[in-house]
Specification:
The protein is built from five helices and no strands. With 149 residues, the protein is mostly helical. Keywords: Membrane, Transmembrane, Transmembrane helix.
Amino acid sequence: MDNRLLEKEKKAYVSLYKKDVLPYSLILCAILAELIYNIMVLDVMPVSYLMGATVMINIVILFVLFTCAVKVNIYHKIWAVIAVFLGIYMLVRMSVLVPLVLKPYARHTEIMAANLLGGVMLLAAGFISLKHANRRQRLQEQLQQSEAS
């Protein structure tokens, strides 16, 4: 019985030090989709003051996405929630902001596809990371309880 418990604890300790690779990779792919969106929308967008605002907003989004990828890799729940909200933002942007405000006349389907792909990847990364972080937290609590007794 003690040997089996020790083996389980060893596996638990090993899993505590693993990086959360899948959500990290998904967010990096979402960054790529965001870059594709930026390039395409700026290429077809009419020159106006909205172009500068779009660039500034997208710089902030790219910075937050990169920070999110790094933090999700080490199981931060808050950043997983931020990834979910950014995924929702991308989907809303795809259906409301791009067609009604930016009004790109060309490459509409490519812009929508980049937004859809990025949004879905961010939603998946956020929910997977939340699941992994909750499981990791339960594991830490179990280890602390077993050490206390």
